[in-house]
Design goal:
CATH superfamily: Winged helix-like DNA-binding domain superfamily/Winged helix DNA-binding domain
Helix content: 55-70%
Order of helices and strands: HHEHHEEH
Distance between the termini: 41 Å
CATH architecture: Orthogonal Bundle
Radius of gyration: 17 Å
Number of domains: 1
Largest sheet: 3 strands, antiparallel
Length: 120
């Protein structure tokens, strides 16, 4: 990855990674590497999830009962832990998505207000 591409990546707000993991697992069970790659791919490579952030987030979500883990075999025939969304996690995904929508809307209103003030 070039230096320019690295500069264009976006830091995630605290809690956002949890939301992205839950949303990714809505599509079905996945191992850690596949979750990180799905987030990267679906964000057009703007978001990159480092292992040092991903695995603590996965453990936090397991502890909260939002995801469960089971052993399985990855697509390259290796043992892996597969994470899946629980019923509690599905409910929490709806809550977190609503919170995100409110936050994004509030930020957009502030930015639009600042643009209008700059035009005066």
């Amino acid at each position: 990855m070039s230096t320019k591409e690295q500069k264009e990546r976006v830091e995630l707000l605290q809690g956002t990674l949890d939301l992205l993991i839950l949303r990714t697992l809505l599509l079905g069970p996945a191992h850690g590497h596949a979750i990180a790659k799905a987030i990267e791919f679906n964000s057009d490579d703007v978001l990159q999830v480092e292992q040092g952030s991903l695995y603590p987030a996965l453990h936090r979500l397991i502890k909260r009962g939002w995801i469960a883990v089971e052993a399985g075999i990855s697509e390259n025939n290796r043992r892996a832990k597969f994470y899946r969304l629980t019923a509690k996690g599905r409910r929490q995904l709806a809550v977190e998505t609503s919170k995100w929508d409110k936050l994004a809307g509030a930020i957009a209103r502030i930015l639009r207000s600042a643009e209008r003030e700059g035009e005066s």
